[in-house]
User: What shape does this take?
Amino acid sequence: MLAVDHGYFQGPTTGLERIDINILPLVQHADTLMLTRGILRSIVPSSVSQSIVLRVSGGTSILKELSNEEIAVDMEDSIRLNVCAMAVQVFIGGEYERQSIINMTKMVDIGTRYGIPTLAVTAVGKDMTRDARYFRLATRICAELGAHYIKTYYIEDGFETVTASCPVPIVMAGGKKLPELDALTMAYRAVQEGASGVDMGRNIFQSESPAAMIQAVKAVVHDNETPEKAFELYTTVKNE
Ligand code: 5RP
Assistant: This one.
């Protein structure tokens, strides 16, 4: 999954200023796009056949408390846009924890009526420890309350305990830009340790060669390619 929904709270993120020019050429290499309805309507042509995970929570910006989100898309619009899933941010331990959990459970209830699953995205506040204990807690709560699948961050120590204790599929979130080999290693380990797939944004579109990077990530996820082999692929495509 290629994540390009960052603008919903941080505006024109580096690498996403011109989604039409810089992101559309990458779409052919992704299974799924994660984006907002504004970008889907205004930029993505109807010929794109990749499945869409629609960002449906929102209402805050980086200038304010991020956990204070609401559901920001009507269910009818998700149906009209033919999305395959709806993504809701869940802030376990955040100031508006309860509100964000209820946003998710509402979307699970409404989406289930129409056969559209909900992706819970575990958002980690600045002051929280990104460790296995936290991610086990956050992912399990989302699963227990009905999320159909969950996006969460990779951690070096104990990620397999997070995937093992979560009864629904886990998708690894990308996070901040890393050197390409490190990002490929993270994706590889996540999949080997139980993630069903990855949802990467900045590590792809902020790469020196986004087209090469998305193909390398795809090789790791779909072909079980090692990080080293995938990095070779990255270098080859980049230099073509
Ligand atoms: C926000 C999101 C975004 O999709 C997320 O930021 C993914 O992109 P990146 O790989 O750049 O972190 O869910 O929480």
